[in-house]
Amino acid sequence: MKDLLKSNMAVMVIFTVVVLTAPIWLEPIGASYPDLLQKFAIFGVFAIGFNILFGLTGYLSFGHAAFLGVGSYTAVWSFKLLSMNVLPAIIFAVIVSGLFSLVIGFISLRRSGIYFSILTLAFAQMSYSLAYSVLTPITNGETGLQLTLNDPRVVDGMFGIPVTNSLPSTNFFGISMSGYSGFYFCAVFLIIAFYISLKIFRSPYGMKLLAIKSNQTRMKYTGFNTRPYLLSAFVISGMFAGLAGSLMAVTDPLAGAERMQWTASGEVVLMTILGGMGTLIGPLLGVGIIKYFENIFSALNEAALHEAFSFLPEFLGNIMVVIANPFVGEGWHLTLGALFMIVVIFLPGGVMEGIGRIAKLFRKDKAGSDVLTEDVVASSSEKTDGGKS
Three-state SS for 254? Predict the structure, then answer.
């Protein structure tokens, strides 16, 4: 299995099958409905891109929500001005987010460590404030940018797409981007994003980024210029965030300044650390855990808890409901906080470290059983030889 996972093709086949069959294997835990699956895919793209910067270089950005918001705004403007086809919207969103991240990265990467993090946070808050107030003609302020019946949509008009009395919906050459079709469209981009990340992680370029994370000072002393590599990683990461923002607009064609708040940046940081920064799968596990808690645990109430513990005796069930009630519903953040504390204290490498420890235990048990088998065989062989002699 270990040798199999060294093959990029094998990893991609396994990952693709897992993603495309998600509605089936997530059904038992109640996470197979389209809206949640879309969130898994979109935030998976966001976390994969963030991990390229944070996981490989160690540069912690608190401003990636700015690129998420820029991608959303660009996509919605594409819908309003050009076409409801999602392809131009995604292309423009990725390009604009890349240019925006190039400017911010060029300035922010003049510093490292906590100073870099503060700079990115400042840029994100500046972007949020601009979108919320100053740039109201472009962003529509606190109301958010939405589609209207008076939008020109010149490309749609050129191809004779009829104008109706209701707001149009996003589509990919006629395929609606709602429901499961919207999920599978986002899933394709998640697979592409994972493939790009895999190639980066297993390339000389990725090794240089890891070397920067390990000891940037030593690399500079050897005459290696690290700045272009850091800037390129920052821009790639920003483009991934812009792609995630455009996919948000694809599945729900509106954009608001709240997507650029520092809390959105903090969320992707939590996802990456919780799953395991610097690993390929870790950020995706973090996305799954946090979004599952946000959408499933937050929907639980006292009645649902009573039903869940109905198999217990009544008095014991009531006790369990009293204990569990503060951790669900509006208190789901308490559960997430407790889980995050446990992971950080006992598993600094995230969930992936825990999986690695479990796998290591199984390998030890298997190695021990193999040694025992060899001893038994050798002992039997000695006895047989002794009897013959």
Answer: strand
